[in-house]
Design a protein that fits this description.
The chain is α+β, with helices and mostly antiparallel strands. The protein contains five helices and five strands; from the N terminus they run αββαβαββαα. It has a five-stranded mixed beta sheet. A hairpin with a 4-residue loop joins strand 1 and strand 2. Bound molecules: tetrahydrodeoxyuridine. Tetrahydrodeoxyuridine binds next to helix 2.
Length: 145
């Protein structure tokens, strides 16, 4: 792993300590590096109303965006699982929006790690251009008016 990756993983590990996961007991930490070089961390935050919980990835990404970042170039996710844990489908869609060119480092038990990319995790992503290019008057998909 490069020095940059090491730092990002260290920040994800640190963020993981703040996970609020009393229901699953599964603590996840994430850190993202923005195009302008800043790093933002996040941890999963659960709620007694289960469906309101948020994954570590989204907490980190939304924190970056809320503080002015627009593109994320690198992502690290740390869990304590005995196998690699990949971002959920919802987080992959968020990654496609804000981190389409990012590398992703997954770290699991005993510091084992692998490298992948958002492009590999989200093939054929649904993106803004998909609807920006559509004709709002065409409701039956045949473009015949
Ligand atoms: N979780 C994450 O934070 N990131 C993932 O990539 C997968 C799942 C969280 C959500 C929930 O708090 C717990 O793990 C169990 O699903």
């Amino acid at each position: 792993m490069s020095a940059g990756r090491d730092e990002l993983v260290a920040r994800a590990r640190a963020a993981r300590k703040h996970a609020h996961c009393p229901f699953s007991g599964f603590a996840v930490g994430c850190a993202v590096r923005t195009a302008d070089g800043r790093i933002f961390g996040g941890a999963n935050i659960e709620n007694a109303s289960f469906n309101l919980g948020l994954c570590a990835e989204r907490v980190a990404i939304f924190s970056a965006i809320a503080q002015g970042a627009r593109e994320i170039r690198a992502v690290a996710v740390v869990t304590g699982a005995d196998h690699p844990v990949y971002p959920c489908g919802g987080c992959r869609q968020i990654l496609a929006e804000f981190a389409p060119r990012a590398g992703v480092t997954l770290v699991w038990r005993d510091g084992q790690s692998l490298e992948t990319t958002v492009a590999a995790l989200v093939p054929h992503a649904f993106v803004t251009g998909d609807f920006a290019a559509s004709d709002p008057a065409d409701r039956d998909g045949d473009d015949g008016g």
